What does this fold into?
Amino acid sequence: VCEVDATAERALEWRSARGGLELELDGLTHALAEPPVLPAGSRLSAARASGPWQWRSPGARLWTARELAPAQVTAEPLAAAWSRRAGGEWQAHGAAVGDPPGWLLAGLPMGIDAVLGSFAPDEYGAERGWLRWVGAFDGRLPLPR
It folds into this structure.
């Protein structure tokens, strides 16, 4: 999930997986594991063979957050999106149907513009994640048609 605060011009990309996660060090701000204290015989490790860093902890849930420029987020096309102007109703765009998923709505501030969406799949059809944009979306964020 990419979280964008358009007013502050800041963005965080959150990634999560169970047991293992590709670790992108550029802009890394958080690396969290649950359980925080591993059971006896378990280990938390990061390794790099020939490609990207891999963070492994069998059975643990891993999260990372890295800071991005909002321009990096807006370069990725959205397949589906829902927009809401301050005080207004949600409007669907592209492949979006009905209301946005409830888990994306959680914690959104009221009374300011917001966009929720899913990124277009990659060239192999794999899901690429979600977007939560808070603040003006004045043309910087192209909404799908």
